[in-house]
Design a protein that fits this description.
single chain; 108 residues; alpha+beta; five-stranded antiparallel beta sheet; 5 strands; globular
Amino acid sequence: MRYIKTYEEIDYGPEVGDYVVCKDNLLIDDRDYNYINFLANNIGKLDSIKIGAKKLYYFVTYENVPDNIDKDYFVKGYTISIDRKEIVFYSKNMENCETYLAANKYNL
């Protein structure tokens, strides 16, 4: 090997301040369809990460939440608590998340 890599880009997962697209993976019958649809089609911003007993809790804040979504899903204001498995896509740039949503919308 002639050249030594000086650095590698390592993915440590989403960080505070990243924009995220989420998906509700819970298979509970009482989940509201509007809530699941809202999560899959909107971009949130990762506010904080809390360390729990066995896993990390990610708190994502959304803007412009419609009135037809039950406010019981949100922790405070328009912030939800999610698991890492529920984050489908994340990026430091909002444009990358918008591109991801557009590609999924048209199945590209």
